[in-house]
Amino acid sequence: MKGAKDHLIGKTFEALFELEDMREVIRRSLPTGMSATEETAFMESTANLKSVIEDLEKGTSENQTNFPQIVDRIGLRYREEGSINIQPIQAAGRLTPEARKALISYGDGYSTCDSCRKPFRLDKISRPPIADFHEELAGFVNMDTARVVPGARRGFQAVTSSLVGKGDSVIVSSLAHYTEFLAVEAAGGKVREIPLDHGNKVDIDSMAEKIEDVIREDGKPPSLMMMDHYDYQYANQHDIRSIAKVAHDYDIPVLYNGAYTVGVMPVDAKKLGADFVVGSGHKSMASPAPSGILATTDEYSDLVFRTTRMKGDVTGRKFGIKEVEMMGCTLMGGTLLAMMASFPHVKERTQNWDEEVRNSNRFIEEFLKIEGNKVLSEYPRRHTLTKVDTTHTFDKVAKEHKRRGFFLSDELSKLGIVGMFPGATRAWKLNTYGLSREKIDYLSDAFKEIAVKYNLNVD
Fold first, then answer.
1. Is 177 annotated as a binding residue?
2. Is 107 annotated as a binding residue?
3. Which residues are listed for pyridoxal 5'-phosphate binding in this entry (predicted)?
4. What is the DSSP pairing of strand 292-296 with strand 374-375?
C-alpha cells in the first residue's frame, strides 16, 4: 500500500503547488483585474489543477510516483505524510493544519508589519492580535511578561547577557544543553555543573555544596541558575521546585528550561519557583523554526526587556521603545503567525499529557519484550522522549550485517518509520509524542517484527 499512499501524497502536493501558481498570477495582476495574458495563464493552471484532482478521484495507484520538485535540487519533505516520525526533536514541532495555513497566507517577510503603528514594536501590534498573544503566552506559563524569540537559545542569551557579568559563575545541570553553555560564554561567564545522582538526575543534595564552592572561589554567589525540567539526553524529570528552593536560599535567580515541556504539558512557572521560563516553539509548540518564548516575573522584566537609552552623537537619534535584548523585534511573518495559529491547539493538548505519557510507556513495555533491550532513561517513563540501549540486540545484528548499523534504520524505513539516527544501534533516542494508539501499536509491532526477522528473542 506504500505506493498507493505515495500517489496520494504526490498528487496532493501537485494540487497545492498548482494553487500557488494560480495565486501568483493573481498577485501579479492589477488591483482592477487580470489582463488577457494573465487570464490565459490562470485558466491553464486551473485546467492542470482539474487534471490532478481527476487523478485523485480515480483512486490510488500502485505505480511509481514522481514527486514534484519545489525548485531545482529542493525536493519535497513528506516524512510526516508518508511515515511515522520518531525523531527526538521533531515530534512536538509538527505543525497543525492551522499553522500551515498561516504560513501560506503570512509567508511574506514582513507580513506582521502590515498594520504596525506607533510605538513600532512587535508586541504592541494589535492586528493581527500579536499584543494579545504575548499576554496569553505569559498566562500560559503563569508569568507576568512574555516575548517571542527566535528559539529557546535566544531566550537563554537574553537572560545571560542581562544578568551575567564577565567572570560570573552560572550553575547548570551536568546534562545541560550546549546552548546554555554558549549563552553563558557569550556573556563572559563560566558554567559550574551540578553533578548527577545514580539515576542520572540532578543531585539536589550536592547543590548547596556547589554553591558554597562558588562563593569561596568567586567571593560572591552565582549570578544565575539554568535548569532543565526534562533534560535532552535522557528526558529524565528533575525536581525543579526543590532545585529552585535551594537556589533562592542563596538569592540566585532561576531560569527554567522548558524546551521539552512548554507546549506539551502544563507548566506553572511561579509554582515551580522559576524567575524565567524559556520554551521552544519549533520543538514543543507546533511552530516553525526558529521560534520560542521567554517569560519572566515583574521583578526581572524591566531588566531583561529593558529599552535602549543610546543616542546618536551626530543625529541625536534615539529609539527608546526598542528592547535591547530583543534587538527591537524578533519573529516576523509566517513564523510568528503560524505559532499563533497553533496556540489554541497547543493549550488544549497540554491537558492530554498523561495520555501521551501512557502511550510512551505502552510502547516501551512492548519494546522491552525484545530480550536484551534496555531503557537508559528513568522507567516507567514520565516523558515521551526516551533513550534506549540496543547494544545486546540490534547492535549484535549490525556487527554481522553488510549494512552494519544502518540496517535498522533501513528496516524501519521499509515499514514506514523514520526519524531514527541512521547507523545507531547502541544507545539512541526516540520520541512518541503525538502518535495515536494505533500508531503506537504499529511502531511496537515493527520493532518486534524486525527482531524476529533477525532471530532475536521476543517475549
1. no
2. no
3. 152-153, 257, 280-282
4. unpaired
